[in-house]
Amino acid sequence: MKSKERKIVVCKILGKTLLCVVAVAMAFALIMFAWEKYDWLPFVKSMIRGLLIPILLGGLMVFLLRREVDAVKDKWKSFVMLVIFLTSTLVFVNVGIVVQEACAKVMRVGSITTLSNEEIKGADYLQIESIEPDTSACNYLFDEALTSRKHVNFLLYQVCPLKDKEGVFLCTRTKETHSRWMSSKAKLQQAKTDFINREKGSIKSVAPSAHFFKVLHQSDHFEQYQTLADSCITRHGAIRPEHLVLLEIRQPGSIEGWGDNVLYIFCSLLVGFSVLTITLMGTGVMNEAFLKR
Questions:
Q1: In this structure, how many other beta carbons lie within 10 angstroms of the beta carbon of residue 244?
Q2: CA 128 → CA 134, 152, 251, 254, 263, distances in Å?
Q3: Cα 44 to chain center, whole Å?
Q4: What rounded mean pLDDT belongs to the chain?
């Protein structure tokens, strides 16, 4: 195939790929915007919206572009499909984050006592000038999660009720990663003990100075926090599950970084399409027999 013919075919493949990625990304952004605005399916976990759906859309991209990829020889076809899948998935993941953070409802108040529990649940983030945590009634829960055959995460969940607001709990999660194959069982057990002893009760020092919180909703993973809150003895007595409000301590700038995700979108497109261009322009990559039909 002549160089000019190859360039024309490559441009067609790249153009169709970019068109499909942009079109699907815009459609996904509109769906996510409506989802956030009208609170569709609140029981659907955020991981499904933020990761599983983009992965499925990445697979959809490969399906939509299967005819264009047929112009590539079989030994290169899988690689090209993988690049398209990874590039589009990264774009969709970051599009979802941008929409979620851009639509986040931030409520700013001087004292949490001015809000009802239902008003708190209507927000995504809460900024409070002053709070009164009941540090005498804190509770914690240790969890261990395998991230791979080589690594394990130690997780410590902690909750602390408020003195002046019934049913409201401040929450924190501390994580520490350890290598499994580099450590014996005894060393891992010692690391676990040291981690718990070091982090247990740390919420007592963090909670009084905290001012920015994420309001945990049904779509978030808060089962560990809920278990702790249900078993926590407070000055208000037992708290009914429907009256429970969980506020995860966050940094004030945690929702101002969505602009970085816009940069990640462009970087994903730039890297992905650069790899595709270099690959498709290589000698012996295009299926000349297919193109002559």
A1: 18
A2: 16, 35, 12, 15, 31
A3: 14
A4: 86
